[in-house]
Amino acid sequence: MADKIKLLYVDDEAANLNVFRIAFKRRYNVTTCESAAEGLKLMEEDKFDVIISDHRMPEMTGVELLEKVGELYPDMVRIIISEYVNDEIIRNAIKKFGFTGSVGKPWDADELVALIENK
Hints:
Blueprint: E1 6-10, H1 14-24, E2 29-33, H2 36-45, E3 50-54, H3 62-72, E4 77-82, H4 88-97, E5 101-104, H5 109-116
Helix pairs in contact: 3-4
């Protein structure tokens, strides 16, 4: 059996992290954290295949985080989650920075799986 995809989920709301972890822990090797800074530190310490980030967070937005991740780890799958998935900032970021895609909040598990697994 192939190794599980290593996934990092960043969201400043602990409840969202818990729901995500519960939904995907059987399918993926899931690590979660509550800030962009913590996420960047975790990526220095371990290798991840996929990063998923909420957009609206204090200190650094998800777009800013995924832009930086793209510079540091260009092969990593990058997915943004936002209540405002059709927001111009999100649409432009996907094109400009090569994000894999975006999903709205509340997210749909099947839609996320398709993006994570690049289907």
